[in-house]
Amino acid sequence: MLHKWKAAECGAGAGGAGGDQRRRCVAASLSMLIAATLAFLAYVAFFPDDGAGGLYRLWRCQDCAGELGEFPGDEDAAADGPTAGGGRVRTPTTLSHIVFGIGASAQTWDRRRGYAELWWRPDQMRGHVWLDEEPVSPWPAATCPPYRVSADASRFGDRASASRMARIVADSFLAVAAELGNDTAREEVRWFVMGDDDTVFFPDNLVAVLRKYDHEEMYYVGAPSESVEQDVMHSYGMAFGGGGFAVSYPAAAALAKAMDGCLDRYTYFYGSDQRVQACLSELGVPLTREPGFHQVDIRGDAYGMLAAHPVAPLVSLHHLDHIQPISPRGKTALDAVRPLVGASRLDPARALQQSFCYQHGLGYTWSVSVAWGYTAQVYPWAVAPHDLEVPLQTFRTWRSWADGPFVFNTRPMRPDDACARPAVFFLSRARNDTGGRATVTEYARHAARRPEKECDKASFRAASTVHTVRVYAPRMSESDWKRAAAALLQDEADEVGLGAGGADTALRRSRARYTIGPSVLTP
Questions:
Q1: What is the C-alpha separation between 155 and 503, in angstroms, rounded?
Q2: Are strands 502-503 and 498-499 parallel, antiparallel or unpaired?
Q3: 288-289 β-sheet, strand order
Q4: Residue 263 phi, psi dihedral angles, 5° rounding
Q5: Under a CB-based contact definition with an 8 Å cutoff, are residues 282 and 258 in contact?
Q6: d(CA 140, CA 11)
Q7: Distance (Å, whole) CA 389 – CA 186
Q8: CA angle at residue 507 from 505 to 512, to 5 degrees?
Q9: Residue 397 needs a FRET pair 20 to 30 A away by CA distance; which of 27, 151, 348, 487 works?
């Protein structure tokens, strides 16, 4: 049968029948050749890696995260994983990849240097404090960044000091380029981070934020002001410099080339940060907003804003000398921020992250909010999570000292109404739990100015017996920032489950544990 089939398809029969058979044989051969060619093209298009660096890489979505436009399963892999060429493996961004440029004045440095000493790590960080002239006293090289004196900026006319500060981005880039030129650079530079001499950075969280972005692309990362009047006056599209901002290496390289000519065009802008933003705008680099950068453009008491921090890594704080000390644990602004910075070293990602829990007892209901490493609030009544996450307005706007508006919602604080204010506790102690995989923080009751009359409701009387809030919390991982919204919603749905003598806790981002005692509220 097989031999007969061959004769029917390709045999050389006599006459016209033989010609028809030959034509059918040729047509069948051409069809198989075309089919094989199409199959090969499909293979090299959809499976382009031939094992030799991508010789048949015929199709690629240039603007997509994955090879064929798909999103990778791990966001860190997209930012810090293999490069587009597929050959070189990119290591995760660390502190050693960041160069800091701190703008300062020689006259004010000694008064403000304590803020830099809070966060600077001499053995792990690189960068400079850029002064307007030589320092007036010996430089504290063991605890602060090294310094450099900026070039004369008087050519830029009015407010030349703003242009000097704006040039720190370019000056920092040129300093790195010089190190590369004479082969003294310690490691690859990926980001340039700018701040003021009174900016407090939280370095580990800064790294966590920058890891999300491809440093080989042009990025400008920061946040606008908290006060609407400041954003309207300057720009919503500008990273306010005191809160700090980050510029990727390619953006800094382009900015360094264009900086002086650009600054000549924008001498009428008030601040250095607005001039930097204008120059980056000319290069087509928009602001990428990250809510953890804080300019703190407010007046009065920042407590309400800090106690309801957004679900994002705390990256920076600024203007601490222009507001009330953020904690009664310190008499000065610098001393008041020390406990928060110290706690953040134990669990950087969890700093200021807000959690909620609820406690029910005979005749009372408590709502508890904790901003980890800073404060706890006990409300002797039921407060919904969507209210707890809104900051209490304990502050006013930066310029006009008005009640608003701000770029976030606020809720009223009524300190003189004993039945409308929570009991407030401030961090008194922080330590690692056994094994270092969890932390224990304690918050002591703050004896604020008491109103003339105490609230006589049963729930308030019960709350008055609590003097300490103790929180046990697992160390927070960077991967917690990537949890899906559905998981967070499930956490909130579980928030009222009670155990014997205690309450389960729903965190807005990750879990901690509390128990309630007659004089101690313990997680």
A1: 65
A2: antiparallel
A3: 147-149, 126-131, 98-103, 191-196, 245-248, 220-222, 288-289
A4: -65, -30
A5: yes
A6: 97
A7: 43
A8: 55
A9: 348
Angle at 277 between CA 274 and CA 280, to 5 degrees: 155
Rounded CA separation 174/167 (Å) = 10
Q: Distance between CA atoms of 444 and 520, rounded to whole angstroms?
A: 10
Residue with tokens 């704080």: 317
Measured distance CA(245)–CA(248) in Å, rounded: 10
In the numeric block, which tokens belong to residue 254?
């382009």
Element (H, E) at 521: strand 520-522
**What is the β-pairing status of strands 126-131 and 147-149?**
parallel
CB hemisphere CA count around 461 (13 angstroms)? 5
Q: What single string gives the DSSP state of each residue in 60-73? A: --TTSSSTTSPPPS
The whole-angstrom separation of Cα 144 and Cα 131 is: 13
Provide the token pair at 303.
């407590």
Amino acid at the residue 151: A
Residue whose tokens read 């398809």: 9
Please check whether residue 360 is in contact with residue 498, taking contact to mean a CB–CB distance below 8 angstroms: yes
Q: Which two tokens stand for residue 1?
A: 């049968």
pLDDT in the model for residue 205? 97
239 touches 287 (CB < 8 A): yes
Helix (H, G, I), strand (E, B) or coil at 440: strand
Q: In terms of DSSP H, where are the helices of 73-202?
A: 75-80, 109-119, 160-166, 168-181
In tens, the pLDDT along 354-379 reads: 998 998 888 788 999 999 999 999 99
Closest Cα to residue 147, out of 108, 109, 198? 109
Instruction: For 246-256, write each residue's pLDDT tens digit.
Output: 999 999 999 99
Alpha helices per DSSP H over 395-514: 458-463, 485-493
**Tens of pLDDT, residues 164-220:** 999 999 999 999 998 887 766 677 999 999 999 999 999 999 999 999 999 999 999
